[in-house]
Amino acid sequence: MNDVAVLGAGMHPWGKWGRPFVEYGVAAARYALADAGVDWADVDLVVGGETVRNGYAGYVAGATFAQALGWNGARVATSYAACATGAQAIDTARARILAGLADVALVVGADTTPKGFLAPNAGERWDDPDWLRFRLVGMTNPAYFALYARRRMDLYGATPEDFALVKVKNAQAGLANPKARYRKAVSVEDVLGSAVVADPLHLLDICATSDGGAAVVLASMDYARSKGLAEPVRVRAVSTVTPTFPQTVIDMPHFSTDSAATVAEPERTFKESIAYAAYEEAGIGPEDIDVAEVYDLSTALELDWYEDIGLCKRGEAERLIRAGETALGGRVPVNPSGGLACFGEAVPAQALAQVCELTWQLRGEAGERQVDGARVGITANQGLFGHGSSVLLTR
Amino acid sequence: MATPAVEGWFTEDPACLLGSRCTSCGTVFFPKVDGFCRNPGCQGTDFDQVELSRRGTVWSYTDAQYQPPPPYVPRTDPYEPFAIAAVELPEGLVVLGQVADGFGVDDLQVGAEVEVVVEPLYSDGGDDRTIWRWKPVGA
């Protein structure tokens, strides 16, 4: 068995607090350790999710959190994988645990973010596509999201109202989440009445950037049993696959796709391959999923994910959202946490926050936003430069 | 005077995108690549510069209603929104670009034909910096 146990989960509330990222990370770590009933002194591995906007301390986040918690001699690692950072940090911890090189690991991600569009680092960088896309095209992240949204409209008949329904659903779920930044009911009219940022996406279709911190405590199944936990939530699979050439879907921060003229396109798109790898590793299929947390950087992207993780066929996502199948109480609730719609993105913490939510869901501890009887959950996320992740958890 | 905003990505007269074609496997890349072919089945290290097709079809499109952050240099004050298109070329790749002056999202649809043009992107002390753009065909 390639399972590791999730002993504890913890989050600092998301917001725009303006405090050092270390504070959010340490608060989340302390919650997670308390939730796990694990003494910090017993943690033998710390993995940090790197933040790139907070100086050197952010580049060595694992060590920064370890020092802030009080040096305990644990091994340390720091991961960076853009939006998939938190999942890659989990994968690093999982690999050392499964190799027998660690018993109990603390995984932490936290960020303090600027206001407005995420922009590249300063300076003239003519060899950096992330700099060039702003300089030469004015291509922001929401502009990429809008390309995907428009394609859904022209190919599958999606409407701005369909996209707004995603926001309405997630806002409703987030009302019951004390860790969420935005806890306010939203109507379709509110979304359609907000300013257009990148046609067809409105301000309320697009997630904000937030401050936040999340942490999980992972352990070997033997360690979990030694703590008297016979049936902990388990990580059954972690997918951090890269694209397969030719990558034919335009993707941040690039100017172009690979050409499909000389090598045949892969069987699955990059986003389809992310969840597929997790399903393969766990021996579990989309039909077994009770609850999902997917990366709704925009409302329309949530619809793409329904198809990418196999909840429905290509072009059917609008039917799911209209029928309420992905709302709490529906066939397969998606983003019961409220999603990025209610959190805003705190990059290195966000993929960890998805795992925190599923941990609470699978334990039956999610309160008013609980998915009844949830036993199997999946996360999905994608970031810049060919990063993506999917974590499959069961109870 | 007019100067390309980036060196070696396109020609101004005639307006044309410049790509690299691997001399071993024939795969075309944009923007230009140096060094190593990115086809995982190819060991190629030599590339020919090639002119990409001047016409393609719209894969998708949007616009920038808010001014993008630096290093984007706005051309006007106050800011004027512009449209963006991702265009599928006969070479089998999709290339992003702004849409030509005077055209917006209402002039576009997935599958529509566009052609490449070169227009000013911003002004650098009286010197126009130019960029490739996509212009609806027949407009």
Walk me through the topology.
The complex is a heterodimer of chains A (395) and B (139).
Chain A (H helix, E strand, L loop, with lengths): L3 E12 L5 H16 L8 E5 L5 H5 L1 H9 L5 E5 L5 H14 L5 E8 L17 H9 L3 H16 L3 H15 L13 H6 L2 E3 L2 E2 L8 E9 L1 H6 L6 E7 L30 H13 L8 E4 L4 H10 L8 H7 L15 H5 L3 H17 L12 E8 L3 E8 L1
Parallel strand pairs in A: 2-3, 2-4, 9-10
Antiparallel strand pairs in A: 1-7, 1-8, 4-7, 5-6, 8-11, 10-11
Chain B lengths: L1 E3 L5 E2 L4 E7 L5 E2 L17 E5 L3 E10 L17 E7 L5 E6 L13 E12 L2 E10 L3
Parallel strand pairs in B: 1-10, 8-10
Antiparallel strand pairs in B: 2-3, 3-4, 3-5, 6-7, 6-9, 7-8, 9-10
Q: How does this model look, in words?
A:
The complex is a heterodimer of chains A (395) and B (139). The two termini of chain A are 14 Å apart. In chain A, helix 1 (21-36) packs across helix 3 and helix 4 packs across helix 14. Chain A folds into two domains: 4-114 and 211-232, Peroxisomal Thiolase, Chain A, domain 1 (3-Layer(aba) Sandwich); 129-203 and 236-394, Peroxisomal Thiolase, Chain A, domain 1 (3-Layer(aba) Sandwich). Chain A is built from 14 helices and eleven strands. Chain A has helices at 21-36, 55-59, 61-69, 85-98, 129-137, 141-156, 160-174, 188-193, 221-226, 270-282, 299-308, 317-323, 339-343, 347-363; strands spanning 4-15, 45-49, 75-79, 104-111, 196-198, 201-202, 211-219, 233-239, 291-294, 376-383, 387-394. The radius of gyration of chain A is 20 Å and the shape is globular. The longest helix of chain A is centred in the C-terminal third of the chain and has 17 residues, at 347-363. In chain B, the strands form two sheets. Chain B has a five-stranded mixed barrel with strand order 6-7-8-10-9. Chain B has 139 residues and is mostly beta strands. Chain B folds into two domains: 7-52; 53-139, OB fold (Dihydrolipoamide Acetyltransferase, E2P), CATH 2.40.50.
